[in-house]
Amino acid sequence: MTRRPHVLGIDDAPFERGKDAEVPIVGVMMEGATLVEGVAITRFPIDGEGATEFLAGWIQSLRWRPSLQAVVLGGITMAGLAVVDLEALSERLALPVLAVTRHDTADSELADALRAAGLKDRLAILERTPPAEPMGRGLYVAWAGADAFEARQLVQATLNKSRLPEPLRIAHLIGAALVRGQSRGRV
């Protein structure tokens, strides 16, 4: 892996459950932690099915896909309760896929939320998800398609302004601006 890997950060935009049917999904491709090389936007149904297949197809269609060296997601869910299978996405893309969060996911209430929403079929994906490991204060990472050393290198190579990898942080800012007109809050 290079010191400045080409990493695609993907995050969903804010949405209002019951009001919005779809949510914007933003991808930001960066070289390392300082150079934005591409931005892509798509939409996905709130709590939609097939998130893994959707992301795999969308990422494969991006013109800069050949230069990607990893994908970083803002957790294993997007658009509400759409669950991404890290292992399957990594295999489809032949790339490391990392899910980054600010909190330890060991005590996550996601399984309860899936059951309450009648989405028990997604629990199998949740059970296959590797446990998130701490990689710094307020930074937990689960990954597929890489070993622990490579995952740590990818995260470290994309950190700059905050505790989150820059491609993910910028995707978050763009998503918020798309929906609210400007970004705000902690990033």
TrEMBL record:
Pfam families: Endo_dU. Gene3D superfamilies: archaeoglobus fulgidus dsm 4304 superfamily. InterPro entries: Endo_dU (IPR002802). This is Uncharacterized protein. It comes from Rhodothermus marinus (strain ATCC 43812 / DSM 4252 / R-10).
